[in-house]
Amino acid sequence: MAAGALIGAEAQTKTDAAVEKRVEALLSQMTLDEKVGQMTQADMNALKNKSDVKTYFLGSVLSGVVAVSLDVRWVFIITAIPFLLLIPLIYFVAKKHWRQTA
């Protein structure tokens, strides 16, 4: 094995250990409800109130096939919600793509 490859492998091991330490630190600060919420993806239309994202510690929100203008407004609403322990919220937009043919 080349010396450069060995150094790279050692650096990767140190990076992996640092990431694992950071993950363990974050998890130790979270309640069970927060951990469950982070693993949950809710459909935007199922939320009764936009603050449910914060209330249930949601880690991901999915917009179904809706108008783009609605999605843009929702992105601004979601970005105003503080992140749980600086963990970003994942926001998905599903858009139907099709082409009519004669």
Q: What would you say about this model in short?
A:
With 102 residues, this protein is mainly alpha-helical. The protein folds into 2 domains: 30 residues; 72 residues. The chain contains 4 helices and 3 strands.
What key attributes describe this structure?
three-stranded parallel beta sheet, 4 helices, 3 strands, 49% helix
Strand and helix layout:
Layout: H1 3-29, H2 32-38, E1 41-43, H3 52-55, E2 60-63, H4 68-79, E3 90-93
Parallel strand pairs: 1-2, 2-3
> DSSP strand (E) fraction?
5-15%
Class inferred from helices and paired strands:
mainly alpha
**SS summary, helix count:** 4
The largest sheet, given as strand count, sense and whether it forms a barrel, is: 3 strands, parallel
